Amino acid sequence: MASQEHLDLFKQGVEVWNKWRAGNPLIHPNLSHARFGKRSIDLSNMNLSATNLSFCSMTHDNLSGANLNGANLMGSYLMGANLCRATLHGTRLNVTNLSEANLTEADLSDAVLSLTIFGNVDLQGVKGLERVKHASSSILDIQTVYRSRGNIPEIFLKGAGVPDSFIDYARSLVGKPIGYYTCFISHSSRDEIFVKRLYADLQSNNVRCWFAPEDLKIGDHYHQRIDESIHLYDKLVLILSEHAVQSAWVEREVVAAREKEDQLRHEVLLPIRLDDAVMQTSKAWAADVRRRWHIGDFTQWKHHNTYQQALERLLRDLKAEQKPKD
């Protein structure tokens, strides 16, 4: 429950509260379960960082410009609240109700979401959605999709538990075609550091991709699930390295992609290399890839600028061809 001392200071308004916080930076205020009355109150520019606001009712309150970094808003009601330009870095938003809240230019970087309710909310002006941490799925309604005009990062939608089929449908509803082919990432587990970086960057650019550690569910039959995914996705991004060249798993995935190319009669494989192993190997399948495909160069992936240039080239190659309108 709320500390009576902290509640009394809070009720004296923003100026008194902020002055007290400035003089007591090590205190983490406790306002949990507080009810502030039926009238909306002005909390704009209030320093509520590291404050326990769990299970509070702040419906329609003005929190514009407020500092909520590291605050605990678990189970709180913020329906219709004004959070314009509020900062919520690392804020706990588990089971928080944000229906009809104004989140324009609010920063949710590293905020923790779980069963968070976004009802009739415009998310297109929200900062840091790509960096939100999803402890479990959240709730987004169709009004939120419409109001946001489809400008919701796909990595956020996927983390919130929105199924791929609905992501496609949502974009079509707002008249925004998918700009990239979907892809399956084939790799050796020993290259996981690079693959996780690439996966995150593809997701943040709205490229929907399948990556086994992220997308395999408990109980999935590994062989069957991978075969299904290769046939479901448009392209196979093949990560070639000294480890991948020796991997029977990678070879198997390349064979499946080649079969898909033969069936569809168009290119499926997009190979990229992390070292020179594929250029020197005598492995038949890898040598065949070397001879038949242009291989993207990510050998300098640890250097930021070189990596970004290679990523831009890969994104260009993943751009879906637009079908002419009838």
From TrEMBL:
SUPFAM superfamilies, sorted: Pentapeptide repeat-like, Toll/Interleukin receptor TIR domain
GO biological processes: signal transduction
Cited Pfam families: Pentapeptide (PF00805), TIR_2 (PF13676)
PROSITE patterns reported for this sequence: TIR (PS50104)
Domain TIR positions: 179-319
PANTHER family tied to this protein: BTB_POZ DOMAIN-CONTAINING PROTEIN KCTD9
Name of protein: TIR domain-containing protein
Annotated organism of origin: Reticulibacter mediterranei
